[in-house]
Design brief:
By secondary structure, the chain is mainly beta. It has 2 helices and 17 strands. Strand 8 and strand 9 form a beta hairpin. The longest helix is centred in the first third of the chain and has 24 residues. The chain starts with a helix and ends in a 10-residue tail after the last helix.
């Protein structure tokens, strides 16, 4: 049996060890980055990755993450190097990590991913979407396109860039229609003799996948990407005569004809669903106002 002095010595040692363990446990859970609590406004420019511990998970090197809903729960990321919409998600904005108050690791999406595109140009002049850069960093050559900047109108963001010789304005957006999340891309294109193609979203394109076009009017409707019991619907409004949809290289692609006059159109990317209903896109097409002129913003 321990005497009082010996017992006191053991209790002091236990207290010291316990305090050390408690201290280590607290240190193992660092405080969140203060960047998470900041009011960032409608957009943030950053390199963005899906895993802060791996540089291989970087999916955009020069990205602009835009909040595209007043409730701030929907985000789209524009890649200023590749002129593509790299990703879209719902939930939160970006998550910054504790190391060096969020400056050591790149932020990652704080939500559920809705769609992505591969790390190659978002537009093509020959329909092939090959990456003409000698390595995977930096902007595409100016003969393909050039990012010029962005504009703000309230919380709306408008990107300005060129594809070939064609000036383009684009504004990302979001609507929740019949409880379904729908991301929109509104385009204003100048007159052009080029035949540009847009890579809109990753999609299966094997023998088990089908693509069908359902027109509601001459320039509007929706396409269905169907595989087994699941599908994704993509609505469109204002498409010029001669525009064509196709699946290639695991993406949904829209081929545009030469444009004899300035053109405004919009695409609306719905979620992947299992029931195949198109009710929400019918509501979108019926309720939508004319496609906006982005130069008026």
């Amino acid at each position: 049996m321990l005497g009082f002095p010996t017992l006191r010595k053991h209790l002091c040692l236990l207290s010291f060890v316990s305090g050390g363990i408690l201290s280590l446990e607290l240190q193992a859970q660092p405080s969140p980055s203060p960047l998470n609590a900041m009011a960032h406004g409608p957009f943030v420019s950053s390199t963005i990755s899906t895993d802060p511990l791996s540089t291989r998970s970087i999916f955009v090197y020069k990205g602009i993450a835009v909040r595209v809903r007043k409730e701030r729960d929907a985000v789209m990321v524009f890649d200023t190097d590749l002129l593509r919409m790299a990703s879209a998600w719902t939930g939160g904005f970006l998550k910054w990590y504790p190391a060096r108050d969020g400056l050591q690791e790149f932020p990652s999406p704080d939500g559920y991913e809705h769609f992505t595109t591969s790390q190659r140009p978002g537009w093509s002049l020959d329909g092939r979407f090959g990456d003409p850069r000698p390595w995977r960093y930096g902007p595409v050559p100016s003969r393909l396109g050039r990012y010029k900047g962005l504009y703000l109108k309230g919380d709306s963001v408008v990107f300005s860039y060129t594809i070939g010789s064609t000036p383009i304005l684009e504004s990302p957006g979001f609507r929740r229609i019949n409880e379904q999340p729908v991301f929109t891309r509104t385009f204003n294109l100048s007159q052009t003799g080029d035949q540009p193609s847009i890579q809109l979203a990753r999609a299966p394109d094997g023998s088990a996948t089908s693509l069908s076009d359902h027109k509601t009017y001459s320039d509007s409707g929706y396409v269905t990407i169907q595989i087994s019991s699941h599908n994704r619907l993509v609505g469109y409004r204002g498409l010029p005569v001669g525009a064509r949809w196709r699946l290639a290289n695991h993406h949904l692609i829209l081929d545009l004809p030469p444009l004899a006059e300035p053109t405004r159109f919009e695409v609306a990317i719905g979620p992947v669903l299992a029931d195949g209903t198109a009710d929400y896109l019918d509501a979108y097409l019926e309720a939508s106002a004319p496609v906006a002129s982005l130069s008026d913003l």
